[in-house]
Amino acid sequence: MTSSASCAMGLLSQYKPGAGGAEARGAVMEAGLLSAILGLVTVQGETAMLDLDLQKIAGFWREVGVASSQNLALKTPKRLEALFLTLSGHELLVKAAYYSSGSCETENIVGSEIDMSGTFVFPGHREIQVVDTDYEQYAILRLSLHWQGKDFRVLKYFTRSLEDENGPGFWRFRELTADTGLYLVARHGRCAKLLKEGSSDCRADQPRARPGVGNLPGTCWIES
């Protein structure tokens, strides 16, 4: 674990409501989202795909593996189970499904494409980049956040299937993470299943993330 990541984790553990101003609370909330989605680990050396067909990357993706030096994902209050990606022009709409305290929670965020390699930027200095995919079975994504002058990155392995975990993409993922360590995600998958089945609609009064807004987006609950 890098010293920068340790520092960020320290900020999270030391934070108490009222101990700082709105700016400090916002920074810690941003770090908390990083902890939930990225795991606060650094992965380097991977490059984006050169001939990416963005339209084919859309749809459901279940998280199977995370490149990490420690099993930090076990310690996060919200555990990512799946993503649903939708392309609209040069924007990428991401619906993320989490398992949190016995319930399923979703978050909606909107990112803008910054180049033709499949890199999208999101509010809060976050990025998603497609490293490798065959479109039909697996995708390897690099998720990153620039926080307090430091870059945090993690490599994640996704599949289209709710069941298959050791497909052809798994071996590619192992190649990319050979020097990093590997944590395979063990989850019941209920939230991922609900997301794939399309049974997770936000309440009408729930706030949505808006492009260009730097604050954290609102969340909605999957009724199950």
How would you characterize the overall build of this protein?
The chain is α+β, with helices and mostly antiparallel strands and 224 residues long. It has a single domain, classed as Lipocalin (Beta Barrel). It is built from 4 helices and 10 strands. The chain has an 8-stranded antiparallel barrel with strand order 1-2-3-4-5-6-7-8. A hairpin with a 2-residue loop joins strand 3 and strand 4. Helix 1 crosses helix 2. The radius of gyration is 17 Å and the shape is globular. The chain starts with a helix and ends with a strand.
What's the short version?
The protein is an alpha+beta fold and 224 residues long.
Total domain modules: 1
Order of secondary-structure elements: HHEEEEEEEEHEHE
The unreliable regions are 1-45, 199-224
Main β sheet profile: 8 strands, antiparallel, barrel
Return the CATH class: Mainly Beta
How many beta-strand runs?
A: 10
Oligomerization state: single chain
Termini, distance in Å?
Answer: 37 Å
What's the average pLDDT? 67
Beta-strand percent range: 35-45%
**Given the structure, what is the number of helices?**
4
